[in-house]
Design goal:
Elements lengths: L1 H15 L2 H17 L12 E7 L4 H12 L3 E6 L3 H9 L5 E5 L3 H6 L7 E4 L4 H29 L4 H8 L16 H33 L20 H32 L7 H22 L6 H9 L2 H7 L11 H7 L3 H13 L9 H53 L1
Parallel strand pairs: 1-2, 1-3
Antiparallel strand pairs: 3-4
Helix pairs in contact: 1-9, 2-8, 2-9, 3-6, 6-7, 8-9, 8-10, 8-11, 8-14, 9-10, 9-15, 10-14, 10-15, 14-15
Length: 417
């Protein structure tokens, strides 16, 4: 227990006395928590600029243009003489879409013939593309329904019957789990889980790289790598691994409370899980990431190496997590590899708990997968810590042998003198 407490305090000193590690493991978490969601506070993209090409110049075409302009998703900013001019406005970034009303549009509608309009949207931005097409589609649908209802009323049908005849099977759409259909509630909760993982791995890599640099300058015990020389303690590998793991687990448990208890409420994200369920699901996630970090950092010889290697993994982990692109659509070998990353399993589990109101039993498969990763990475951390200890012992023995040989040479030299 004395060795465990000593190692725990040492690890916390390494974290909080290292400005770089403290910035990532503490400061970055707070900054991300409150500043990352700010660009998404509007949640829904509204009033996307649209350019209109009106080749009909009729009363009905002007009515359609007004309806598109008054829609919450679109806003008519200019009128172009032809399609090429409108396309240049989109290419210059002045508009996100184009509405083209062909000639004889009103005439065809009044004659009861099929009429059509053209909608062009910038598909290089999926949100812009979706909003433009949705706004134009709903505006033209409303106009079409009004024209049809008036035609039926002109034939002598009452207004109520005309409305029912126009839409005999109305569609009632209720978005589940994300009532506002906002982008913030879709992307931010998933990214927050990834932030917990990546900052933890990068911070642990910094601490490990720093200790590796200093271990070459100061002698240490097989499982302790401090500037202070201590006598080896038998059986301290278990104390070392568990103490270091608990140091990071306790720190990130506080961060988890901040994210799920404060940030969710501050930005109005759906929160349908109780604290005890989140704690039970989050425990194997944090532990698996901690043990993975303990295993990985044994390979880093310097702080720079840790930063270069672990920062590179952030984007692959994001795209393999399954919320931006479904893992079912990935190649089989890549989907299997993604399962080795804790966030791949944790993100859908947390989203189902917080947004869908699932119980722990509903995410039992994800929970067991995280516990399995926790066990695998604990063994890897155990092996890596032993390897570090043997390497440090060998380095210390080599230094002592070299010192002994040098002292013997000095004694022989003095004797000959």
């Amino acid at each position: 227990m004395r060795a465990w407490l000593s190692e725990l305090l040492d690890e916390w000193r390494r974290i909080f006395l290292d400005p770089g590690a403290a910035l990532i493991l503490v400061g970055a978490l707070v900054l991300y928590a409150f500043f990352y969601p700010i660009p998404y506070r509007a949640s829904v993209l509204e009033r996307v600029p649209v350019v209109v090409v009106d080749q009909d110049q009729s009363e009905l075409s002007r009515r359609l243009i007004r309806m598109v302009d008054e829609h919450e998703l679109t806003h008519v900013v200019a009128r172009a003489g032809n399609l090429a001019e409108a396309e240049r406005a989109v290419q210059d970034g002045k508009a996100g879409g184009v509405l083209v009303i062909p000639a004889e549009f009103e005439r065809r509608v009044r004659r009861g013939e099929q009429a059509s309009v053209g909608a062009f949207a910038d598909a290089s931005y999926f949100l812009v593309y979706r909003q433009v097409l949705t706004g134009i589609l709903e505006a033209t649908g409303t106009l079409s329904a009004g024209v049809e209802v008036r035609r039926l009323m002109a034939e002598g049908m009452p207004e109520g019957s005309a409305i029912k005849a126009r839409d005999p099977l109305p569609l009632v759409s209720r978005p589940l789990f994300n009532p506002t259909e906002g982008y913030a509630a879709y992307v931010v909760p998933a990214v927050l889980v990834l932030i917990l993982q990546q900052t933890l791995l990068v911070g642990m890599g910094l601490v490990g790289g720093t200790r590796r640099e200093r271990s070459g300058k100061a002698k240490a015990s097989p499982y302790r790598f401090d500037n202070v020389t201590r006598a080896p303690v038998a059986g301290t590998r278990l104390a070392t691994v568990t103490a270091r793991a608990f140091a990071y687990f306790a720190l990130y448990l506080v961060h988890g409370l901040l994210y799920f208890g404060v940030v969710y409420r501050l930005y109005g994200f759906p929160e349908r899980a109780d604290a005890w369920t989140l704690f039970r699901f989050g425990t194997p996630f944090l532990l698996s990431v901690v043990f993975l970090g303990l295993a990985l950092r044994a390979a880093f010889r310097s702080r720079e190496m840790a930063l270069q290697a672990l920062l590179f993994t952030s984007l692959p982990a994001l795209f393999l997590s399954g919320f931006a692109w479904p893992t079912e659509s990935l190649p089989a070998w890549l989907a299997a590899f993604a399962k080795a990353i804790p966030s791949t399993t944790a993100i859908p589990g947390f989203l189902r708990l917080t947004q869908m109101g699932a119980s722990l039993a509903d995410v039992g498969a994800e929970w067991m997968t995280l516990w399995t990763l926790c066990g695998v990475y604990f063994l890897a951390a155990w092996a890596a810590t032993g390897w570090e200890g043997r390497r440090q012992s060998a380095a210390g023995s080599g230094s002592r042998s070299e010192d002994g040989s040098q002292r013997g040479w000095q004694r022989n030299t003095r004797g000959r003198a």
